[in-house]
Amino acid sequence: MKKDLFVTQPFLPPLEEFIPYLEGIWERKILTNNGPLHQELENALCQTLNVPEIALFNNGTIALLSALQALDIKGEVITTPYSFVATAHSLVWNEITPVFVDIDPQTYNIDPAKIEAAITSRTQAIMPVHCYGYPCDTEAIQTIADRHGLKVIYDAAHAFGVELASGQSVLTEGDLSAISFHATKVFNTFEGGAVVCSTPAMKRHINNLKNFGIEDEVTVVAPGINGKMSEVNAAFGLLQLQHLPTIMQGRARVDQGYRELLENVAGITLPLEPVGFTPNYSYFPILVEDNYPLTRDELYRAMQEQGVYGRRYFYPLISEFPMYRDIASADPSNLPIAHRIADRILCLPIFPSMTAEDIERVATLIAGQS
Is the pLDDT of residue 1 over 80? Predict the structure, then answer.
């Protein structure tokens, strides 16, 4: 029996390496509330990611919710329909109306050329997503934001470790960036996330928001939430950082293997080569085109029958779900590229422990249908 291959598998260091961290937690009896490991992980991430300030959270969704709160965003926010639902959900939970615009057909990121026409008197911010870890056109987005006095909050859930050609972290773009450390991500803390910001003052504000708005023992300054990361999660993050080079090398190897084996398969479009930035190989999305013998869904099911579980990230579009489809900007005629990509996308398994045989097995299933 061949093993099942899922779209991802979390990297787990040797268990014996985690035990000393847990022993330290048991000795200190500090489990949460900005403990020593929490502080150590924040400092380590600032160095690893080359960012000025980072505030840890219990998950990426709460990080995104709090980023919007930190900038006091209301009204409307322009965003992409091509993402995980948490992107739009974070807006609705803050009583903000999402305004969807179409995506770029090459990067699958929000198309800056479509943003300006969607701006109204109620628009307060733009929330792009660095889809699959490919950087948005941050310069064009910032130019539009500056021209109209808008904030920019990046949903950077996929973008851990991604650097621009200048060597600058993509996480420093815009006003704030929210990252996910979920188990499916390149770097994980079981569950977790963070907000990257540029000043100590903003970090203090965000820290207040994630701790019920508490500033000190007798002072509450904002209607905050409980978004704190525990010491156990922080400990796992510190251990993960030690293995980060291995994680990145493993993902790069899988990416390269797929490219070599699938580059000549008719009807399969591979992801763009990562040119002009340092990638993190977080996903490997292919497009199943009309000249491939099977539809995307037929290929998806054929692979599942052989124990290979890709995912249709992102299908359906956020704009297709019941709570969003009645928004005017969700009309399919407004989002033709996003619909085209969503109907053809299939993300292949990619994780560091995949073997050469695993990669060949997946590629052979795809090539064998053509």
Answer: no
